[in-house]
Amino acid sequence: MTARTISILGATGSIGASTLDLIRREKNKWRVVALTANGNAAELATLAREFGAEVAVVADEARLPQLREALAGTNIHAAAGTSALTEAASRPADITVAAIVGCAGLAPTMAAIENGGTIGLANKESLVSAGEVLTKAVARHGATLLPVDSEHNAIFQCLAGNDLEHVRWITLTASGGPFRDWSHDQLIQATPAQAVKHPNWDMGAKISVDSATMFNKGLELIEAFHLFPVGLERLRIIVHPQSIVHSMVEYRDGSTLAQLGPSDMRVPIASTLAWPQRMDTPCEPLDLAQIGTLTFRAPDEERFPATRLARQAAEAGGGIPAVLNAANEIAVAAFLAGQLGFTRIAAHVEDVLSGFAPPAPATLEDVIALDAEARHRALALMEPV
Ligand code: NAD
Ligand code: MG
């Protein structure tokens, strides 16, 4: 059996680590082409050596000497900068896992799509900012987009063999995040340390804050809108604190299909890596008798306005979802730096969106320019605490 080739963009992150953990368990079946990171050259070099990658790329050019030194004596090619990142992403691979966080992942994801390959998409921000541009490119280049995000991976599995026209609802489940039972007054006081401690999932800092504000579910609503074109009115959100049901599809005959599993990203990643086959994971089997109770409740958009803002952005379309995403990225970074209160994140995104009517982006360059403009606006509107 010839080994399958894989590239991992964002290899040093949480999704990158989960992907590499699965590959490590069946190393003879995989050959690693490209591994990338933002600035952590030492960790990237260690991974590149372990997996015998062809190329290792750091986005931060200042880290290139360190990366080169750490890879000395190997024949792994070391490179740096955004164009090197895009070049690495465009190397042919049987599957490219897009696991960079934020809109920074957009250009590399697009490069992998333009290759016509299979992309395991974790980088939801790229689909939120550039939904139409990306999905059109997928069709034009004959690429295959497989969702890694647990909800979308669940929906993808529940849709298999069915026609979208028979779908009544697609329901995204949300854990509700660490503050789901907090009052508005408590939310005002929420700290970064509290926000990044998710009750069910172990994730990067940005998505952890997004889970706490419910922007994660808002971004996922827009992600689902592009991945599963049933219309926004057929997409719903329900809070499910146990994170066992990862999402559901209800059909016109009243049948609801759901995908269940442990709260471990290795399950949806494995489903993507092996698709349309299956592979083993080391995850604990689901013990429903031990879990006992699965509960569901409607989201509270008073305390957590993010899903309302995201739905409005999806309805508005054009460049608005890119503005929502960019404003949220800036607000989350400011919150993590202690410069913005927790409840100001959604308020700030709303401020940035208000009165801003950019033209719809038609190309990747348009989206990147709009993202930069929206970030600039988000920074300019930031009040010092
Ligand atoms: P993370 O912060 O743990 O890792 C992010 C990776 O991207 C790292 O390798 C980092 O070096 C790289 N990176 C960061 N900024 C970069 C930049 N400017 N240029 C190039 N590379 C950069 O994040 P994560 O939790 O692994 O999330 C990655 C993506 O997957 C996000 O879009 C997130 O929403 C999505 N996702 C994550 C999870 C999860 O459980 N962690 C679940 C679903 C979806
Ligand atoms: Mg998710």
Poorly predicted spans: none
Number of domains: 3
Q: How is the biggest beta sheet arranged?
A: 7 strands, parallel
Helix content: 40-55%
Could you give the topology of this structure?
Blueprint: E1 4-9, H1 14-24, E2 30-37, H2 41-51, E3 55-58, H3 64-70, E4 77-80, H4 82-89, E5 95-98, H5 106-114, E6 118-121, H6 124-129, H7 131-141, E7 144-147, H8 150-159, E8 167-174, H9 184-188, H10 192-195, H11 205-213, H12 215-227, E9 235-239, E10 245-251, E11 256-260, H13 266-274, H14 288-291, H15 306-316, H16 320-336, H17 344-353, H18 364-380
Parallel strand pairs: 1-2, 1-5, 2-3, 3-4, 5-6, 6-7, 8-9
Antiparallel strand pairs: 8-10, 10-11
Helix pairs in contact: 2-3, 4-5, 11-16, 12-15, 16-17, 16-18
This protein binds nicotinamide-adenine-dinucleotide (NAD) and magnesium ion (MG).
Magnesium ion binds next to helix 8.
